[in-house]
Amino acid sequence: SKHVDQFVLEHGIPKIREIRRTFENIPLARSWEERVLKRMQVVKDSKWLNRSASMAPPINPFGNLAMRKPENRAKARLNNAGSGNPMFGKKQQRVVCQYCNKEVSVNTFNIWHGDNCCVVNTNSKNKAKNRNSGSNNPMYGKKQEVKKCECCSKEVSAPNYARWHGKKCKSNLTSSVGNTGSGVYNSTEGSI
User: Fold this and answer.
1) With contact defined as beta carbons under 8 Å apart, do 157 and 144 qualify?
2) How far apart are CA 166 and CA 145, in angstroms?
3) Res 122: pLDDT
4) pTM (2 decimals)?
């Protein structure tokens, strides 16, 4: 910390040092030190040199911060392009499900097809996915009621009309939404 560095500059390195415990790796040592500092309440007591009870995780110099630089992103893109990509020239094996006749990759087959196929197994993982598709969907073949907004003249479904149109329409000059300037919605500063 800056406080400890300043103390060392003014008074030199402390002559008395005490090793209370040793650890096999850094994360264990850091978590133990954080617990000790919190229990001793070093932040509240001025007699302690350490003024912080929480330990920030170590920064990985090769992590996300390095990848924010455009030159590093370009280099990574080139390294993984074409023959540099570990999947270059490889194709996943395709399998046809004997029950539904769909051609899928091996991984997809293991999860959703074969003995798990919803055509033969009513308790399959895939059942929920297909339960409301096609003619099984309660809205299949039905048309939603369409309403025309009197403010903006758009034709929308009844649920959308109730939520966004009518008295709430942006084109309605009497609505609070319509009277709010566009700068409020486009502004990234402050809050509404």
Assistant:
1) yes
2) 15
3) 67
4) 0.28
